[in-house]
Design brief:
A two-stranded antiparallel ribbon has the order 1-2. It is mainly α. Strand 1 and strand 2 form a beta hairpin. Helix 10 packs parallel to helix 16.
Length: 324
Amino acid sequence: MDYLATIQAPVTQEIEDFRIYFKQQFTSNVALLNSALSHVSESAGKLMRPMLVLLVAKCMGKVTERVFAAASAMELLHSASLLHDDVIDESDMRRGRPSLNVAFNNNIAVLTGDYLFSQALNNAAKTGDIRTIEELAKLGKELSSGEVMQVELEKEGTYSEENYYKVIYNKTASLFVCSALCAVYSVGGSDEYARAFENYGKCVGMCFQIKDDIFDYFNNDIGKPTGSDMREGKITLPALYVLNNSDNPALVTIREKLSKGISLDEKEIESFIAIARNEGGVEYAHTVIDKYRTQAIDSLPKDIAPELHAALVAYIDYVINRDK
């Protein structure tokens, strides 16, 4: 199935118009900053979150420039956070291209992130809706909190599914929740629609991050080598499952080191990955994804147009079935 074609079908023209609007956000009359912004713009992905804004807004009415402003504010805030993350993580690639901190330097990357954050605020103001502004402010706090929470848990050696879900909600699902709510608010949708699409967005976002984490257990071409999360001290759902459920003796030393915040060596990482793959960790993660998918589809309002319902089902299925 061509998921993207189904997703885009109800908002084909709106997507084209949004791309023009969004590209205009990456300009400056300062030559060096303009070059940096162009680099970021050229590295933009499929704009999945803005597409969600357009789809949700279309469920309730016409997509207007207020909707474009809300979608831009959310995506610009996300882009700014990625630039800062790349500096903190000392990343050298972003979506298959050199990250801005490598193509330019850390100072330019941080300042460009600040500029995009200000552009996000400008677009939030253009919506003229206090709820949208509040939701975007909340998003900024959640993204930062998720990153800090992850560092804190790694130092504590505290590994539980509950904590994992809290981290991935803040780091990833919050973006999809913000997309959905800003869409509802930008067209004056009801509280009932807001609750429905908020839950849909949460489920999509949780699926997105769990699927992303599964990639780490296999050789792939997304620019992220197998085991990179563990090397960074991140224990994701497949590993958590076996950590808490397997009696494999190889996990005794691994549990002890993790509880003390001690990094695993290469052999232990390889062993941990193999156990997670062979003893049901990856299958368990897929089971959790399936539950979130069911919840997401059940959340959709019953009175939206069939074409939009199909697009939103295809949206979460694209997230789940993507190969990178």
